[in-house]
Zn-dependent protease (Pradoshia eiseniae), 225 residues
Amino acid sequence: MSFLIYFILILIIPIFAQMKVKSAYSKYSKVPASNGYTGAEVARKILDENGLYNVKIEETHGVLSDHYDPTAKVVRLSSDIYHGHSLAGTAVAAHEVGHAIQDKEGYTFMRIRHKLVPVANIGSNFSWILIIAGMIFSIYNLALLGVLFMAAAVLFQFVTLPVEFNASSRAMKQVVALGVIDAGEERETKKVLDAAALTYVAAAAVALLELLRFVLMLTGMNNED
């Protein structure tokens, strides 16, 4: 029964989060922003107002594939956001610029997340292989190493949360202060940002559940020894 509950949770949590963000994006991507700006124009305006003239804006493929690349100093916006004039586009573009502002100011959690990237990548890609191999061949230390790598990946997920929430908070402050949105659009803009943040919360929750499952399996393996 406990395994069934676990399976349901790791299945439902991300699906629910994706449904929320897709619903909010779909709804507000059809609502034109009163300013008439495209997402690219919103991004450029906020960047320039914060002295980030060196940060470029590029169009990228995919849906909701928007991101900020701190290495290249580029805000990449999906085609719908880059060219669109919607409230959803305004919110997403401003959020990604929020990351650029974090980078400029040396935001602590962003620096920590950047340092965790190499080990988090190993944890995401190989930890379960080490764990399963350790259990199959009864090599406790190998399984333990896998759990430690997975823990690093989970830590990365949780460090990501303040980074994303802070970027959204910065985005709201910027679009309000610069008059990018009017008072009547604040609530809708925040809904888009909150829905997007929910996907990161869901990812962190699922990662933690997965880690706890393997920790319990490892504990049982150790007790058998």
Summary: The longest helix spans residues 186-224.
